[in-house]
Amino acid sequence: MKKQTIKEILQDYKKVLHHDITVYGWVRTFRANRFIALNDGSTINNLQIVVDFENFDEEIISKISTASSLKIVGEVVESQGAGQAVEIVAKKIVILGDNFTEERDKTILQPKKHSLETLRDQAHLRFRTNLFGAVFRVRHAVSFAVHSFFNKNQFFYINTPVITGADAEGAGEMFGVTNFDLNNIPRDEQGDIDFAQDFFGKKTNLTVSGQLEGETAAMGLGRIYTFGPTFRAENSNTTRHLAEFWMVEPEVAFNNLEDNIDLAEDFLKYVIQYVLDNCKDDLDFLDKRFAEEQKSKPEKDRAKEGLIEKLENVIAKRFKRVSYTEAIEILMNSKENKKGKFQYPVENWGTDLQSEHERFLVEKHFECPVVLFDYPKEIKAFYMKLNDDNKTVAAMDVLFPGIGEIIGGSEREARLDVLKQKMAEMHVDEHELWWYLDTRKFGSVPHAGFGLGLERLVLFVTGMTNIRDVIPFPRTPKNAEF
After folding, report:
1. 1 pLDDT above the threshold of 70
2. How far apart are CA 356 and CA 342, in angstroms?
3. How far is it between the farthest Cα atoms of the chain?
4. Which three-class secondary structure state does DSSP give residue 268?
5. CB 460, CB 271: distance < 8 Å
6. Residue 72 DSSP label
7. CA distance 40 to 68
């Protein structure tokens, strides 16, 4: 008989009522030497095990403690207490893994409240807490929904390289990849590092984006998406940045900017609806936690809606579509800007918007998700389509409450001559990207795409406030533990 998870047992308990079953899990609590709260990670809900200690060896009972792992055989019966429909009367208990007494106080496993910083220091154990069990089950649901959405819409999943010679963003904040002995790096006649002798025969890096390679696939397959790890060597210790994170990047042939915005809105609403439909217990827990967290904030900083209400409102409301030019006028004329409340004042057209500006537009001015489009060409990447005004590009950013930018994308520059001109202006080496230019030589078409940082979406859906708490093992400056 296949092993059943606790989630399956609690969902279909009528099938096993008054039958003997075998369950496995870890002890969350053991009350009065009689009631074990057992959890196997499949759900936030525990299964209560009733132990008649007169039927068991005292030595076994004494070894059961928080975090012990058990195999239990017993009868499923209606629960006599509140809080659960059924419980198991234990007939056999096997201790699979002890919780060594001398180590207990050194870990987060003792049942008390721990700070998120403490939990980060023991990221290998935080999966066992209610909070992080919920977060990572939701992260799974988000990831599954990403694949489901694109599969339903006839996209093809493409794996783009992690090691690349191209810098998609042109920002240069990339981790280098080398096989050199760092104590004996070969140099050429000019004294520069001789990458011709390295493993790949050229300078290579960890990718910041799969977009450029994704575009080449879209030119043959029509609709593609990538979903993989990306890396930024940005020395930033904020609650919104990671050095290693996961990106979702669709690319669609024959799509223009408006099509791209429609796709982004449909995609986000689909994923959020999937989580609401499939993660009810975890979202209920996270919603209560979110509400408690809001109480500790000054009233002016509190969220206007609960977590679940916020998610439902994102689905219900059409995203507000606003040009960059209109957004700048709103920001320049806002009380916050005129009274100097922005950390970065908005003084003129061409200002690169900061998170505080994005959140003002979403949370205070429009009170719904916002899509900004048609940005100044000087503050956007070389591959974005130049508009007819010769001042702006067909870029778009989706802004969410509490997050700011959650998606960034554009219609791509499909005209070879214009693309080459923009690359020259932005000092992007044509020779390095010869293959990218080829896509504009052989049957170029209008096409568009965007990038979604998975962790930012999980941050939004779970109500967490630090991006390090929605990825299993965060990679940040001076931190590569585990």
Report:
1. no
2. 7
3. 85
4. helix
5. no
6. E
7. 11
**In the structure encoding, which two tokens stand for residue 64, read together?**
């059961």
Residue-wise pLDDT for 219-231, tens only, equals 999 999 999 999 9
* Cα four-point dihedral sign 85, 91, 95, 100: positive
Tokens 């590569």 correspond to what residue? Answer: 480
Q: What single letter denotes the amino acid at residue 288?
A: K
Residue 361 contacts residue 403 (beta carbons within 8 Å)? no
Best CA proximity match to 356, nearest among 313, 294, 399: 399
Q: Which residue has the tokens 């390679």?
A: 213
Is the CB of residue 104 less than 8 Å from the CB of residue 65?
yes
Both tokens of 471, joined, read 């990825």
Give the pLDDT score at 171. Answer: 56
On whether the 132-172+208-469 domain is CATH 3.40.50.300, my answer is no
Helices of type H across 174-321: 211-221, 257-278, 280-295, 307-316
Q: Backbone phi, then psi, for 450, in 5-degree steps?
A: -150, 170
- What does the domain layout of the chain look like in residue ranges? 6-100, 132-172+208-469
* pLDDT, the chain, mean: 93
Sheet containing strand 156-157, strands side by side: 156-157, 223-231, 244-253, 447-453, 404-411, 392-400, 370-376, 320-323
Give the model's confidence band at 168: pLDDT under 50 very low, under 70 low, under 90 confident, else very high.
Answer: low
How do residues 53-108 score in pLDDT, each as one tens digit?
Answer: 889 998 899 999 889 999 999 999 999 878 889 999 999 999 999 877 566 556 67
In terms of Cβ atoms closer than 10 Å to its own Cβ (0-12, 13-18, 19+), residue 86 is middle
CB atoms inside a 10 Å sphere around CB 269: 18
Assess whether pLDDT exceeds 70 at residue 42. yes
Q: Which class would CATH give 6-100?
A: mainly beta
